[in-house]
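Figure S4 source data
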Amino acid sequence: MPLSVGDRLGHYEIVAPIGAGGMGEVYRARDTKLKRDVALKVLPDSFASDPERMARLQREAEVLASLNHPNIAQIYGVEDRALVMELVEGETLKGPLPVETALNYAKQISEALEAAHEKGIVHRDLKPANIKITPAGVVKVLDFGLAKAAELQVEGRASDSPTFTMSPTRAGMILGTAAYMSPEQARGKPADKRADIWAFGVVLYEMISGVQLFKGETITDLLAAVVKEQPDLTRVPYKVRRLLQSCLQKDPKQRLQAIADWQLLLEGASPPHSARKGDVPWIFAAILMAALVALSVAYFRRSAEQPRLLKVSVLPPDKLKFTTRSHPTVSPDGRHLAFVANANGQDALWVRDLDSLAARQLPGTEGAHRPFWSPDSRFLAFFAGGKLKKIDIAGGPPSPLCDAEDSDPIGGSWSKNDVIVFGPSGGGILWRVAAAGGSATVIRNQDGKEGSLRWPWFLPDGRHFLYTAKENAQKATIYAEDVDSKTRSQILPIDSNVTYAPPGYLLFMRDGTLMAQPFNPDKRELGANPVPLAAQVDYDSALGIAEFSNSQNGVLAYTSGVSDPNSQLTWFDRSGKVTGTVGAPGLVEQAWVSPNGDAVVVNRRDSRGGYDLWLYDLSRGTQSRLTFSPNPRFPRLNIVSPIWSPDGSRIAFGKPVGTDVNLFQKTISGSSQEEALDSATDRYKRPTDWSGDGRFIIEETLFKTTGREAVWVLPLFGDRKPFPYLHADFNQNHARLSPNGHYLAYVSDETNRKEIYVQTFPSLGSRSPVSVNGGDLPIWSRDGKELFFIGSDRKMMEVQVKSDVTREGARFDGSVPKPLFETRFGPGTDVWFDVSKDGRFLIPTQVEQQSTNVTMVVNWTVGLRK
């Protein structure tokens, strides 16, 4: 009798039924001892008395227990007549899927099969119904070793085809699910691991095409198709046809013999006709990646041949580019490359397994900066959302470790003793925290000379770490420090990040060249003179970091010629047509049009890597510099968020002071000194608007303790004491006042998605939602009759505004948002747009640049002997 909700089997309480099959029912159950949900696979009463079927249950338990792999559902134990298994949350595999996504899933399926085949275990029933995809994108293969007891009904409907399991002593018996079984299974012959390879090909075809490869009205028809019909592969791209052809050979001897070799068959897959122009990048990428796969296989199998130096370029994911903020870093075992890439307007972490063609985004890593690896290459640590976090690259959400200001962090390193040393934004202090998380403590504070401490890197003993102490723009020193005693010794006078590479080298940047110098990590002593490794490696002189990384087994990665794509200040009309430009292309984030429309103020990055304010005179076409930031410790935070005073005579802006960001103002004539407006130390702050009557400045604040953004108001009268206006346990930011001063438009993520709201001002009264399906960056038209914002699909959205102001207060009435045109914002985390008096939009628009690659070098030490 089937179990009901609330029934118990041992200490497992039934929560809900999941499914049923020939072997029994599957339930979601609660482990009342360990307080976790599990999957119970329960034999029916009629089967429990059958010794053969009970033996089969025991055999499945033993099979599953021998497989410990992240892509195979785990077994927790056996209870009475039930298997207790991992409850896999997620969706059953189904197509059609993008090719790169399908190949990512195929890689995980193949690794599960390879782990089983190495133990002599054949799945024999691989099909989409036995494959689940977790919310984190991890594949879980179910029912390994399962032999379900169900008699074959030959003339049943093909759509109802069960998984057939017959005693191997009976003649003509069939094991498998009809649509996915191999020809030898369909004929009732013994099946080995090559049957799984056939099923792998059938599943991959269905993932990509979305249709079942073999069909039939009855099971007999379907089995006949499996045995006799040649599969039609015209529905799938050329790049996978060679692989599918090898997997789907009717004769097992002609089939791919080892699932681990499946990716090698993707190389050289081009159309039979001459290549089209659009195919060339794909062909080139395939050739490069095939070379990378070949050299990786050769390297990791440790051939007895003399090692050779091998180089190959790694391309970024399709439609993405490597930039100076990609921070590519190779794992200690040399098998993975992690980097930051921007997709759909949001930075996130990506990982490319070097034996794979596809990179994969790690869910939950939005806003990531400066990733670094755990010593076992299993985890990535990174900075995001005011936290230092870590994530398992095999799947699962990230875990916060500790608070860490992350606007521009200056690196971290993870020791073999599970201690992390890191530097948050600012660089004045190095902190330590356990890799399991907890409270961070100061390990090294700057003294009177050292303005910035940067780029820690642990040595092999797990106690000593290297770091850069930068005294000023001209002087920096590399130190080695004991993480426990905090004693240190000077190593090298150089302004660069530095890493240790076995068998005994320090790698660092000097005069535009990546160098390697012998180094004894036990004595922490340098050896002979340095030797050049690579020229023109990307180097940020303001931050003192070169974009290279190395594994612990001879793999080196670096970028050359990578640059952040420039932006061009561009005028657009309401239809999205370009009507003009302002200034030359450059690294520009914010640009605001003056109240009378004759000038634009921008924050623009200079050659030092810092941002300053520039004024463009629109009538004369001239430009002048308004600020000259002397602070080399915070080059990317020098000047932020310039806004105009109502009369157009002054600019307010945010500027770092020590480890704070304070509010200042300055006249546009440039003749006056900068005047401090808000110097509170409990929060970072910047202006986002100035009321039309000149009485208030709207502030966006970031609290150091919580990492939350809030809206504050700075009165410019009386005691000038700023006060919180919108402050909650979620982020509220990007606030802009209506021209009449009665409404404040802002962004809130209280629903876990950015949306636009309008709140009455200066008193908190009624609040009105504005956006429907996400929104950001609200801007009012100069007459206050329209409100513009950027929709979740990056389109410029417009809302018609009707408002009444009576004795009872202000009342906002906005129309349903409608799209005007698609935008193409330039790079940066803080890019805004503005609207002129004549209704044109001024947007920093990205200028297309040539894509660049990461260079991977295997056995790089071989080059030192030449």
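Figure S5 source data
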Amino acid sequence: MKHPRFAHTFEVVSELPEPLRPLRKLALNFRWTWRPEVQALFERADGRLWELSGHNPVELLSALPAARVQELAEDSSFVEALHSGAHELDEYLSSETWFDRAHPGRREETLIAYFCAEFGVSESLPIYSGGLGVLAGDHLKAASDLGVPLVGVGLLYARGYFRQRLTPDGWQHEDYPQYDFYRLPLELMVGPDQAPIRIEIENEHEDRPIVCQIWKAQIGRVPLLLLDSNVLENAPGDQGITDTLYGGDQETRLRQEMILGVGGIRALRALGYNPAVCHMNEGHSAFLAVERLRQLMKESGCEYSAARVAASAGNVFTTHTPVAAGFDAFPVDLTRRHAARMAQAAGLSFESLLAMGRGPSSGEDEPFNMALLAIDNAGYVNGVSKLHAEVARGMFQHLWPGFIEGELPVSAVTNGIHTATWTGARFAELFESRLGPAWRESPADAESWSGIESIPDEEIWRARCEQREELVNFVRRRLAKNRAGIAEWKAADLDAVLDPKALTVGFARRFATYKRANLMLSDRERLKRLLFDSARPLQIVLAGKSHPRDDAGKGMIQQLIGFIRDERAQSRMVFLEDYDMEVARALVHGVDVWLNNPRRPLEASGTSGMKVVPNGGLNCSILDGWWDEAYRSGLGWAFGEHRDYSDAGYQDWLDAMALYDVLEKEVLPKFYGRGPDGVPGEWVAMIKRSIGELAPAFSAERMVREYVDHGYEPAWNRFARFTEHGFAAAESAVEWRERVRAAWDKVKVVRVHDTADKRNVVGFELSIRAEVELGAIDPGEVAVQAIVGEVGANRELRTTRVVELSHVRHSGTCHEFEARVRCESVGHGGYTVRVIPRHPDVGVPKNLTLATWE
């Protein structure tokens, strides 16, 4: 045999001399990813090994030659810098935080568990595929800086996400390297006996649960727990469940999601964590709701309905998906085979579990939808931009019949970026010298950026030019390793790739078809004129991966590389292979303009464009995702329309023509419009406005604060209220809900009348009276509302507002309600009346969808 399997295992580590011991502590806390001075220490130890290791400090330390280790131990300046870095980390971990000041005394009782299928913390921990994972990594980093008591939960993929390899004709192939977890910045969780801590998840086989061990990555103050099924206790097929991110078939995905949700909750408890709030970042972890329910019932002895009210109240769900087809949905038979035993362990019938993950009017073959499972078991639901929340409410409207789309319980918390992680060295130095440390310590506060306008234009422009030149050098080094898409390479050709002084546009993202990476190729001759203009050249740097099963996305990559090759455009246009966080940093640091042209409204948020902001880059984008709410004249450019056409081909043509126009008529003239000092004044003015207004508004610190204020704090308060005093409030809420539901068929709007004439002068006050039959329901248990708005061509109400009617009198079970409404706008107005239930502990329509309309 070539490689026999081991029967016994042990770990071998290199021992650092006493002066260098803090290196290991720094290496095992990913805070180094946003501390340039610590990264500089690793690079100083051995720059070549630092690059070869993929910026993995554990790999670097294990590979340092003994002679170099001794040199460093005797280098007083290195040792001094090392101990300074270690001391600074200790101070950071022990200092008072924003959370301590904003929520004094709440730290111990308000632990938040943040679940996600992927985390992009660093390229040295390759368990991410793209935007969702990088956002999750930034969330943990911002939570650490703010001191939010949060723990991350994910999966540790033995082969990660694929590495991209391109053939000479530009077709994508996928490689899946095998990672050695002992050589990553991770710690295996062990018990007092030093044996790995194991957790078990129910399987389709009664006698063979899935066993997982737990690894920990430390992200500043925040631990990230990662589950790994590759243990000998598992059958060979089960060992590979956590093999690849988003790999395998539907069965593998379902089993991964059971490990993430159910196993994640059990891992938390096995390590002594008892979260009050669980945040499901996308639906992949929604099975956690079932496990929380099981644990609450087992530990409290309370019955199912009250336990479910309490458990759901403590759950938060964030959706990142703008189309229903993007949610994970599994066939009923597959779900039954793998999840029925898990449901049984929680005291649920499989039919009850199935109902949680399907719509209210599902057919027998309706698949089990993880997003619906999450929504049904969450007290707070949000999209990731204002526009995306609107789209999500439209997608989920069928869950809350009888309610207006705009009032459905899907809020918006727009994404943000961890500023210190994504700001390049030149701008970081400039901010430090001109703004002080506030820009990185309090990036969400507008005051931290208030001095941006006073920075001399030439200093902003110098930093911009230096980071652009660094990008060009990075591209040349990267292409030297792999030259896909460029024919007949010679060593000298590298020096002709890109111009450090030319306007540089970046386009990098997942190559899904709706992101339209090939939109720029719509008029190839026009694009060539822009690229090869001798006076005002444009150059473009591209990168991105297509899903392994998305041939249409792979075709877009091939089209772009074919254009570069056929037009011999390598001096002005390059495609960087194997997009990862290292490539992303180089791009957002170096480009002048970030291009984004999805088919509106299919970009839920997007964060890449946010990352160029603190690097002096400007955005040029379709009005979609975050840019739809961020864009204002003078901050960058928007092209295309708010209107969306049903003919996708026509939409693409219109947007492409608008893109060429904005580049030719606005972007290029401003960039090359230099003053006597060689500085483009108008361009730098836009950079300053962009940084001053957008950097604080789209920081991850602002995002996490919003989650704390609008999601986490209400959730932990609800959870505490429902679980105290033997679940009394939860049981009362359940009893009320069932009583009202049983009596609701007697609720009727008997008669409505008002004081309006056919024609009324603007500003008049309208009196509305409604007689409502309530049966056994008390008037204090309902809200009678007038939905007032403009009347459209089909008698529909638009731009509506809700006006509450007050109870004025009753006769038996018939009650009269009244309100006065001032009409301030000219046009055809109207209203209609409805009755909905009301209770302080029952969300309407979140937990009760009853509504009676006149």
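DSSP finds 29 helices and 27 strands in the chain. Confidence is low (pLDDT under 50) at residues 484-489.
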